[in-house]
Specification:
Radius of gyration: 16 Å
Shape: globular
Helix content: 40-55%
Order of helices and strands: EHEHEHEHEHE
CATH class: Alpha Beta
Structural class: alpha/beta
CATH architecture: 3-Layer(aba) Sandwich
Strand order of the largest sheet: 3-2-1-4-5-6
CATH topology: Rossmann fold
Number of helices: 5
Strand content: 5-15%
Bound molecules: NADP nicotinamide-adenine-dinucleotide phosphate
Number of strands: 6
Length: 183
């Protein structure tokens, strides 16, 4: 599939609210083609409406980062529509309701957090690398947090911190396995 145009195309996960929405807003204001993804269609479409008026309208596509089929559908959409992407911003994330310090947190909370915050972004990156390789300056941006730091980490949200250490430390290993840059 050839590139359909030469403008940069940027995919943002969890773009319907919070930091993800603000990233989309600023990119659209700079004239970038943004694919705003969200797990709930209504929320994603409402967010895209708020962004109308730039050089490119933001596009919406559903994405639940914990759902392999959803990732597959997004990948097909991007291939058909753009033929490439330039940046993947792995922004979506949760702090699960059951959060607690490490020796108290239940494993279901840790699993849920890792599925959403670590394995989902990794799976998505793996699927989108072929499209990133067609981009002019490919990058993967993983949101991290002070809670993932090895120092200055207050330790109250053990599952979240565990995941964020994955985000903080994954760029080096991701970079070694792909020409796409990972930050
Ligand atoms: N806020 C901070 O101070 C801070 C600091 C450091 C790092 N971060 C990181 O920055 C990112 C954004 O933070 P935020 O404060 O903007 O969070 P937020 O307001 O809670 O928004 C989280 C976003 O992730 C989406 N999401 C959750 N689970 C998902 C899934 N399975 N598939 C797809 N999307 C999913 C949410 O969708 P729904 O609307 O459907 O729930 C929402 O769009 C997170 O990764 C967070 O860990 C935040």
């Amino acid at each position: 599939m050839a590139r359909t145009n030469n403008d940069p195309a940027i995919v943002v996960t969890g773009g319907n609210r919070g930091i993800g929405f603000e990233i989309c807003r600023q990119l659209v204001a700079r004239g970038v083609q943004v694919v705003l993804t969200a797990r709930k269609r209504a929320a994603g479409e409402a967010a895209v409406k708020k962004l109308a008026g730039g050089k490119h309208a933001a596009a919406f596509h559903p994405l639940d980062v914990t759902d392999g089929k959803s990732i597959e559908r997004l990948s097909e959409f991007l291939k058909e529509t753009y033929g490439h992407i330039d940046v993947l911003i792995n922004n979506a994330g949760i702090i699960a309701e059951g959060e607690a310090p490490a020796l108290k947190v239940d494993l279901a909370t840790v699993r849920e957090t890792l599925e959403t915050n670590a394995l989902g972004p990794l799976h998505l990156a793996q699927k989108l690398v072929p499209l990133l390789k067609r981009g002019s300056s490919p990058r993967i941006v993983n949101m991290s947090s002070g809670m993932g730091a090895l120092t200055d980490n207050y330790g109250g949200h053990a599952a979240y911190g565990c995941r964020r250490r994955c985000s903080t430390q994954s760029p080096r290993s991701w970079r070694r396995s792909s020409p796409a840059r990972s930050r």
